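Folding Task

Wanted — backbone structure
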Amino acid sequence: MAMPALVPRYTAREIRDYPDDRLRYEVIRGELFVTPAPGLRHQEAVLELAIQLRAYCNSTGQGRVVVAPFEVELAEDSAVQPDVLVIMAGGPGRLTPQRLIGAPSLAVEVISYTSKRTDRLQKRQLYQDEGVPEYWIVDVEARRVERWRPGDAEPEVLAARLEWRPHPGVPALEIDLVQLFDRVWREP
Protein backbone atom coordinates (compact mmCIF):
# COMPACT_ATOMS: atom_id res chain seq x y z
CA MET A 1 0.00 0.00 0.00
CA ALA A 2 1.39 3.40 -1.02
CA MET A 3 1.81 6.08 1.60
CA PRO A 4 0.03 9.36 0.87
CA ALA A 5 2.36 12.20 -0.10
CA LEU A 6 2.91 14.69 2.67
CA VAL A 7 2.16 18.24 1.64
CA PRO A 8 4.31 20.75 3.49
CA ARG A 9 2.44 23.21 5.69
CA TYR A 10 3.81 26.66 6.35
CA THR A 11 3.30 29.33 8.98
CA ALA A 12 3.36 33.10 8.68
CA ARG A 13 6.59 33.15 10.67
CA GLU A 14 8.35 30.75 8.28
CA ILE A 15 7.72 32.78 5.14
CA ARG A 16 9.19 35.92 6.68
CA ASP A 17 12.64 34.34 6.28
CA TYR A 18 12.26 33.86 2.52
CA PRO A 19 14.59 35.90 0.28
CA ASP A 20 13.71 39.31 -1.14
CA ASP A 21 13.82 38.16 -4.77
CA ARG A 22 10.98 40.19 -6.36
CA LEU A 23 8.58 37.35 -5.67
CA ARG A 24 5.66 37.68 -3.31
CA TYR A 25 5.45 34.88 -0.74
CA GLU A 26 2.11 34.41 0.97
CA VAL A 27 0.66 31.60 3.03
CA ILE A 28 -3.05 30.84 3.21
CA ARG A 29 -4.21 28.16 5.64
CA GLY A 30 -0.72 26.67 5.55
CA GLU A 31 -0.43 26.56 1.74
CA LEU A 32 2.39 28.55 0.14
CA PHE A 33 1.61 30.89 -2.77
CA VAL A 34 4.36 32.56 -4.80
CA THR A 35 3.66 35.22 -7.41
CA PRO A 36 6.03 37.21 -9.63
CA ALA A 37 6.32 40.99 -9.69
CA PRO A 38 3.27 42.57 -11.35
CA GLY A 39 3.14 44.51 -14.61
CA LEU A 40 2.52 48.17 -15.47
CA ARG A 41 -1.31 48.15 -15.67
CA HIS A 42 -1.50 46.37 -12.33
CA GLN A 43 0.73 48.95 -10.68
CA GLU A 44 -1.17 51.85 -12.28
CA ALA A 45 -4.43 50.49 -10.82
CA VAL A 46 -2.83 50.05 -7.39
CA LEU A 47 -1.52 53.61 -7.48
CA GLU A 48 -4.83 55.13 -8.64
CA LEU A 49 -6.78 53.35 -5.91
CA ALA A 50 -4.22 54.11 -3.21
CA ILE A 51 -4.26 57.83 -4.10
CA GLN A 52 -8.04 58.03 -3.89
CA LEU A 53 -8.26 55.96 -0.71
CA ARG A 54 -5.51 58.00 0.95
CA ALA A 55 -7.15 61.30 0.05
CA TYR A 56 -10.40 59.99 1.50
CA CYS A 57 -8.78 58.75 4.72
CA ASN A 58 -6.91 62.04 5.12
CA SER A 59 -10.04 64.13 4.56
CA THR A 60 -12.14 62.12 7.02
CA GLY A 61 -9.31 61.53 9.51
CA GLN A 62 -10.50 57.95 9.74
CA GLY A 63 -7.68 55.68 8.69
CA ARG A 64 -4.45 54.80 6.99
CA VAL A 65 -3.68 53.34 3.56
CA VAL A 66 -0.81 50.92 2.99
CA VAL A 67 0.34 49.36 -0.30
CA ALA A 68 2.14 46.07 -0.89
CA PRO A 69 4.49 44.69 0.00
CA PHE A 70 3.19 44.83 3.55
CA GLU A 71 2.16 41.77 5.53
CA VAL A 72 -1.28 41.13 6.98
CA GLU A 73 -1.19 38.22 9.43
CA LEU A 74 -4.71 36.89 9.77
CA ALA A 75 -3.85 33.64 11.54
CA GLU A 76 -0.75 31.65 12.47
CA ASP A 77 -1.00 29.81 9.15
CA SER A 78 -2.12 32.78 7.02
CA ALA A 79 -0.13 35.86 6.04
CA VAL A 80 -0.92 37.78 2.86
CA GLN A 81 0.10 41.03 1.19
CA PRO A 82 -2.93 42.76 -0.32
CA ASP A 83 -2.08 45.24 -3.06
CA VAL A 84 -3.81 47.98 -1.05
CA LEU A 85 -5.20 47.86 2.45
CA VAL A 86 -7.00 50.36 4.63
CA ILE A 87 -6.73 50.31 8.38
CA MET A 88 -9.48 52.39 9.95
CA ALA A 89 -9.08 54.04 13.33
CA GLY A 90 -10.42 51.65 15.95
CA GLY A 91 -10.51 48.79 13.45
CA PRO A 92 -10.06 45.13 14.38
CA GLY A 93 -6.42 44.82 13.30
CA ARG A 94 -3.34 45.82 15.33
CA LEU A 95 -0.77 47.74 13.31
CA THR A 96 2.94 47.30 14.03
CA PRO A 97 5.87 48.70 12.03
CA GLN A 98 6.34 45.26 10.41
CA ARG A 99 2.77 44.08 9.77
CA LEU A 100 -0.94 44.29 10.50
CA ILE A 101 -2.06 41.56 12.86
CA GLY A 102 -5.73 40.89 12.24
CA ALA A 103 -8.20 42.08 9.67
CA PRO A 104 -7.87 45.34 7.74
CA SER A 105 -11.03 47.41 7.16
CA LEU A 106 -10.55 47.00 3.41
CA ALA A 107 -8.36 44.69 1.34
CA VAL A 108 -7.85 45.31 -2.37
CA GLU A 109 -6.31 42.89 -4.85
CA VAL A 110 -5.68 43.88 -8.46
CA ILE A 111 -5.73 40.60 -10.32
CA SER A 112 -3.17 39.56 -12.86
CA TYR A 113 -2.84 36.46 -14.96
CA THR A 114 -0.80 34.69 -12.27
CA SER A 115 -2.99 35.72 -9.31
CA LYS A 116 -6.56 35.37 -10.65
CA ARG A 117 -7.34 32.03 -9.07
CA THR A 118 -5.73 32.78 -5.72
CA ASP A 119 -7.35 36.21 -5.41
CA ARG A 120 -10.82 34.96 -6.33
CA LEU A 121 -10.76 31.73 -4.36
CA GLN A 122 -8.25 31.27 -1.54
CA LYS A 123 -7.82 34.93 -0.59
CA ARG A 124 -11.51 35.72 -0.91
CA GLN A 125 -12.41 32.81 1.38
CA LEU A 126 -9.67 33.78 3.84
CA TYR A 127 -10.81 37.40 3.97
CA GLN A 128 -14.45 36.38 4.43
CA ASP A 129 -13.60 33.81 7.10
CA GLU A 130 -11.40 36.25 9.02
CA GLY A 131 -14.01 39.02 9.02
CA VAL A 132 -12.47 41.53 6.61
CA PRO A 133 -15.45 43.91 6.23
CA GLU A 134 -14.83 44.53 2.55
CA TYR A 135 -12.65 42.98 -0.16
CA TRP A 136 -12.31 44.40 -3.67
CA ILE A 137 -11.04 42.34 -6.58
CA VAL A 138 -10.03 44.77 -9.30
CA ASP A 139 -10.09 43.30 -12.81
CA VAL A 140 -8.22 45.77 -15.02
CA GLU A 141 -8.85 43.74 -18.20
CA ALA A 142 -12.63 43.61 -17.65
CA ARG A 143 -12.68 47.18 -16.20
CA ARG A 144 -14.67 46.20 -13.14
CA VAL A 145 -14.48 45.67 -9.40
CA GLU A 146 -15.93 42.69 -7.56
CA ARG A 147 -16.93 43.68 -4.02
CA TRP A 148 -17.10 40.93 -1.39
CA ARG A 149 -18.26 41.14 2.21
CA PRO A 150 -18.40 38.43 4.89
CA GLY A 151 -21.23 36.01 4.17
CA ASP A 152 -21.58 36.95 0.48
CA ALA A 153 -22.09 33.99 -1.84
CA GLU A 154 -21.66 36.19 -4.92
CA PRO A 155 -19.83 39.46 -5.43
CA GLU A 156 -21.40 42.80 -6.18
CA VAL A 157 -19.95 43.63 -9.62
CA LEU A 158 -19.30 47.32 -10.26
CA ALA A 159 -18.21 48.87 -13.56
CA ALA A 160 -19.36 52.52 -13.42
CA ARG A 161 -19.10 53.74 -9.84
CA LEU A 162 -17.93 52.36 -6.53
CA GLU A 163 -19.15 53.81 -3.24
CA TRP A 164 -17.42 52.87 0.02
CA ARG A 165 -18.66 53.86 3.46
CA PRO A 166 -16.52 52.27 6.19
CA HIS A 167 -18.60 53.82 9.00
CA PRO A 168 -22.23 54.98 8.95
CA GLY A 169 -21.35 58.40 10.34
CA VAL A 170 -18.81 59.41 7.68
CA PRO A 171 -19.39 60.50 4.10
CA ALA A 172 -18.88 57.84 1.45
CA LEU A 173 -15.91 57.66 -0.88
CA GLU A 174 -17.12 57.67 -4.48
CA ILE A 175 -14.80 56.33 -7.17
CA ASP A 176 -15.63 56.85 -10.83
CA LEU A 177 -14.47 53.50 -12.19
CA VAL A 178 -14.72 54.55 -15.84
CA GLN A 179 -12.27 57.40 -15.22
CA LEU A 180 -10.05 55.22 -13.06
CA PHE A 181 -9.72 52.52 -15.73
CA ASP A 182 -9.21 55.17 -18.46
CA ARG A 183 -6.20 56.47 -16.46
CA VAL A 184 -4.89 52.93 -15.97
CA TRP A 185 -5.11 52.21 -19.70
CA ARG A 186 -3.53 55.45 -20.94
CA GLU A 187 -0.49 54.87 -23.09
CA PRO A 188 2.87 54.87 -21.29
Summary: The chain has one domain: 22-184.
